[in-house]
Amino acid sequence: MDTRRIENPFVELATSREGVEGSRIPVVLRDSYAQCGEDLIVEALLRARLQKQRRQPDSLTYIEIGANHPIATSNTYLFYERYGARGIELVPICGGILG
After folding, report:
1. Rounded CA gap, 77 and 33, in Å?
2. Domain-by-domain residue ranges, the chain?
3. Using CA atoms, how far apart are residues 85 and 57, in angstroms rounded to an integer?
4. What is the pLDDT of residue 63?
5. Contact call for residues 40 and 78 (beta carbons, < 8 A)
């Protein structure tokens, strides 16, 4: 697991702009490859489920349908990188069947 802790610059900018004292609770950015952090949401849900089942995250397999890119905007790359999960990505080929 990546242990880098990057302070969220948006929080610092907003507190400075609004004249509010910064929080004592650190607000950090997390690695995410999905468009809107969906991979982080799924990670939290899966970790809870796996812990309940007493399974390890490296036992995960996935199918990503409609993958646009293997890393950028990927909903599954986080699991591959962080836990060694394996799977396949299905990418549509424009103009393939009808073109």
Report:
1. 7
2. 1-30, 32-99
3. 7
4. 92
5. yes
